[in-house]
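Data availability (excerpt). The following record was deposited with the supplementary files.
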Amino acid sequence: MNASIAGLARQWTTWGPVVAAVGLALGWGRHDLPGYAVVLIVLCLFAAVLSAVHHAEVIAHRVGEPYGSLVLAVAVTVIEVGLIVMLMIGGGDKATSYARDTVFAAVMITCNGIVGLSLLLAALRNRTAVFNAEGSGGELAIVCTLATMTLVLPTFTTSHPGPQFSAAQLAFAAVSSLILYGVFVAVQTVRHRDYFLPVLRPGQSGHQPESEHAAPPTAAATWFSLGLLIVALVAVVGNAKVISPTIEEGVASAGLPKPVVGVVIALMVLLPETLAAVRAARRDRMQTSMNLAYGSAIASIGLTIPSIALASVWLDGPLILGLGPLHMVLLVLTAVVSALTVVPGRATLLQGSVHLSIFAAFVFLSFSP
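Predicted structure:
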């Protein structure tokens, strides 16, 4: 056991959270950071994000599927909420739409970017990617429902001027999102757990050819990763607060649209999740990739919106949640194409290419609306 811990102590994922925490301590409260210090803190931020998801993966490996995908999704959501809140605190009135932009970007990245790339890689290796239509279809239904309730309805409600909820409507949306997320967790981990496990191909029996998996980490290594995960999450949120003014100034000076900030946040937070989904797809565990993608989208909405709604009590300015016409079109297109992909329970590189095309359109139009 001691040898195992000693080996972990030599890994960069162990030192990443520690170095990020030191950077946070040195930069906290300073508003005149020189350029090199900002670069170092950004590097610390990336190291903390990657380390956090690595340690979440270690814990996920210990608890197994489908709990593992759930652990990863919650860890990513904690990072996302922390970044959004810190940027909203530092951005003032200019940051009123950061929550909407980040959550919508997360939906597009997961449902098109991660799903599309995973389908493409799995289909290139095995001609078709197979997954459980019941489990993936249920996840997609929750994503579409949550996205409509929290990102579309605010544009059409009339109780409050502008694309935002009234206080009562926001509370209802937050509570409904939490309840729906809770139901999803119960179904995924207890009642219909088999719907979210990797699917066997014809001719396979027993276990899917995944015996090459490394042995689960020891209890000591798991607790070690849990401690470092907490340190990494604190470092992510704190360092985001330190560099939030710099991010605002950089976007403004480059003349980029404000939604670009949300896209950057979502891309950074979901990068490790993307890598995990890609690795699963390459090992012919497409259902795990789908769980990671749709589970992250569900957590991003079902946990982020209630958290931001609660934080809005202390934040200044309105909370803009309603999407504009362009993003609504992309959301509807994503929902329709995703349904056509999920229903058969199998897909080819054609479906993967379609999802990646929608994702490319989203990224391009974010920078050039």
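Summary of structural features: Residues 206-212 have pLDDT under 50 and may be disordered.
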